[in-house]
Amino acid sequence: MSDVTLDDRGRLTLPKEIREQHGDQYHIVELHDGIKLIPVADDPLDALRDEFADVEKTADELRERAREAAVDEAGR
């Protein structure tokens, strides 16, 4: 972990090691107790394909499973 400071124009410079590991583009998400930087992949579709490459269920099966879980949760 490292500390960084905004410059006079409000810019934040990330350390080189962070940029090399996570890239140059980020989404900024405001949380109740701070902010979070989420790296944006150069090709978001490729990143999604890689993330879900080992998922063996179809989108319809996943959707049905999510619906069933929501119904179960609502019934509690």
UniProtKB/TrEMBL annotation:
Residue ranges the record marks as coiled coil: 45-72
Does the record carry Coiled coil as a key word? yes
Q: Name one GO molecular function term.
A: DNA binding
Which SMART domains does this entry report, sorted A to Z? SpoVT_AbrB (SM00966)
Q: What keywords were assigned to this record?
A: Coiled coil
User: Which ranges carry the SpoVT-AbrB domain?
Assistant: 4-45
**What is this protein's record name?**
SpoVT-AbrB domain-containing protein
Q: What is the source species?
A: Halorubrum lipolyticum DSM 21995
Q: What is the lineage of its organism?
A: Archaea, Methanobacteriati, Methanobacteriota, Stenosarchaea group, Halobacteria
